[in-house]
Amino acid sequence: MGKKGNSRDWVFFHFDPGGRNAKPIQRFLRTHDWKLYEDGRMFDMKTDNNEQNPILPEDDNDKSKKNRQSLKKIFGQMK
C-alpha cells in the first residue's frame, strides 16, 4: 500500500489532552532503546520500561549522553 519511503529510527509524540482538568501537554521522542521527554527526563527503555528511574542530564553516562544529544537535535526540528 502506498509508496515506499525512508524509515526513521525514532517516533515523535505530542499529547495534548485538552479540557478543563487536563494534564499538561507532553512531548517526547522514542527510539527502540531510549525515550526523551521535552523537559529533559530520559529513560533507558531496555532496563526501565515502566519509566521509574529518569536519567537527568547531570546523571548521563557516555551512552545516555550520546543518545540525548541525538534526540535533542530531532526535538529542534519539531518546533
UniProtKB/TrEMBL annotation:
Region (Disordered): 45-79
InterPro entries for this protein: Alkaline_phosphatase_core_sf (IPR017850)
Protein name: Uncharacterized protein
Lineage: unclassified sequences, metagenomes, ecological metagenomes
